[in-house]
Amino acid sequence: MRRRLFIVLVACACAALSTTLLMRSMGVERDNALASVHAVSVLVATERIESGTTPDVARTSVERRQVPQSALAPGALTDLDSVASLRTSLLILPGQQIVPEMWAPTVPSPLRPPPGMLGIAVQLGDPQRVAGFVTPGSKVAIFATVTAPGAAGPRTRLLLSPVTVLGVGGSTVTTRTTQTDGQTSTEQAPSAVLTLALNAQQAERVVFAVTQGQIYLGLLGEKVSTPTSGGVSAATVFGGAS
After folding, report:
1. Same structural domain, 98 and 128
2. Is 237 part of a structural domain of the chain?
């Protein structure tokens, strides 16, 4: 009789212990679940942000979003005040959380053109510099659009190819004012300064094209051919005689 009573008591004790452990386990899982869904407000990139971008420019490409605690990146920023004097040190893609490791001080490095060449800087918008895919060491073709004396209108033509890009500055916002039909409009667009390796004669042509017209870069691939032609004008853009 006593033995049976002892067995019953032990069984009850084990059942109680199992119930306690189960409840604790459920409580831990519940706490973890609540922590994983608890939302935290952080900065997230909404657009592609190039390396070397300043916080003032980057502000237009980030927004605050609610992120679950379980998906929070370590040190994720809630504003850009702490990195106000820095620049992005890598490419940031849409959807990435903004963290301090993405920013670094601007450290200018000495720029040394190849022997016999000049370093010529030009400021170009995103489309003119292949949407930011031109990087130091890239080979590019330069197209120029200018109006020759006595010509009926501007003509676009391959100016130089290949040309080596020595350096690419960080993106900045430039303001441009235009007038159309008597109406003045102002727009802001990102741009960057590119430094090109040119000899003296090439530099003359590029500087003239930039100051008297505009230039457009094309990123050269392997084995690409860039033969020169008479160029394209409004009269020949659809295949007419040049």
Report:
1. no
2. no
pLDDT (tens digit per residue) in 88-113:
988 899 999 999 999 988 766 667 88
Query: Are residues 131 and 54 part of one domain?
Result: no
Smallest CA-to-CA distance from 200 within 112, 146, 119 is with 119
**Which residue carries 């130091």 as its tokens?**
136
Q: What is the pLDDT of residue 32?
A: 53
Q: Which residues constitute the domain of residue 67?
A: 39-104
pLDDT at 1 over 60: no
Q: Are 189 and 176 in contact (CB under 8 A)?
A: yes
What type of residue sits at position 231? G
SS3 101: helix
Asked whether the bond before 113 is cis by omega within 30 degrees of 0, the reply is no
The closest alpha carbon to 119, from 206, 213, 214, belongs to: 206
Q: Which of 127, 114, 80 is nearest to 100 (CA)?
A: 80
Mean pLDDT value of segment 217-229: 85
From the list 106, 56, 107, 64, the residue with the least C-alpha distance to 84 is: 56
Amino acid at the residue 67: V
In this structure, what token pair is assigned to residue 156? 């676009």
Structure tokens at 221: 């691939």
pTM > 0.85: no
| In contact, 196 and 206? CB cutoff 8 Å | yes
Range list of H helices, 38-184:
55-58
